[in-house]
TrEMBL record:
Protein's recorded name: TIGR02452 family protein
InterPro entries associated with the record: CHP02452, Macro_dom-like, PARG_cat_microbial
Pfam families recorded: PARG_cat_microb (PF10021)
Limits of the Microbial-type PARG catalytic domain: 75-211
Gene3D superfamilies reported in the protein's UniProt record: Leucine Aminopeptidase, subunit E, domain 1
Amino acid sequence: MQQLTTYLQCLILDNNNIIDMIDNFISEFSITNSWNAEKWSRLMEDVKNMTDGDSRKRSMRKLRAIVFAANKFILNKGNYVTHQGLVNMPIFQSYDKIYKQPITVNHIRRIEAETIFGVLNMDCIDAGKMLQEEGYHPAVLNMACEDGPGGGVIGGCYGQEESLFRRSNLYVYLYPYSPHALECNLQSKHPQYPLNGNFDGIYVRDAVIFREAENKGYELLQNPFNMSFISVPAIREPILNDGMLNKRDIIIAKDKIRTILRLGLINSHDALVLGAWGCGIFHNPPRDIARLFKEVFLEEEFFNKYKKVVFAILDDSISLSRKKDDGNLLPFKELFDK
């Protein structure tokens, strides 16, 4: 019994030490334009090994929250420091627009070849960068929260939109459409969130990507680059019939998919980076979502309009456990990776 008590005391001390180190990291990097990706990664690895579930969850959120908090300081300053020196935030001819009504792209001509489809187990920004290097002009789907921009990024939540906010200045373009504009000294724009209509979405051209992905500690990039985004939320918590979308939600989902494709085409993009849209915390069935994307791409309005479309899907233990070991990647591979 005494050995068990001693063991538990050591675990508590270890947890407390990790929490103290996180707090020290936050104090060091919350109001500076530098970053220690290696130290952040070590702390995250230590946190993942914490035995107390509540402490682990809180600590992971604190570590992720500091990334976004540091971003706001960096963007206000206009530069940051890497191991190689000072990097000024680039200025692109950026543009953003909110859509609340259906548009048509029937006038846009088809390409001469067939659309190339692919499914990759990789981060969506990294997939977008890959397409740029291949000579395409891609837009990346932001699987947005319908209530407001960024989802739970301020609180350090894990998710695709949150990751985009931690790696880029996307919030600068989406916050003006919400009450967050005033908090960040941004000018409000109208109409505003929520994005709860079938044809609601926001297009952002040339946001700045200036951090690596989480698996690289959100390291600050020596060479930041531009990326365009289409923000359209999926249906949240759809009512399923035998694990499948009901007829009403199929109609809504298809309209939303059409909105994604239209916003890309109307803004002159020839490639898209999509994902397992709504198949995470929104609990949409991945096989249905993959099938609906396939059906919409075959419609007259969209058939062979894009040169290349990639589904960038990161499968992990959570997605695999939720989907009976099929995960989110396999259903899309079965339809698009042929």
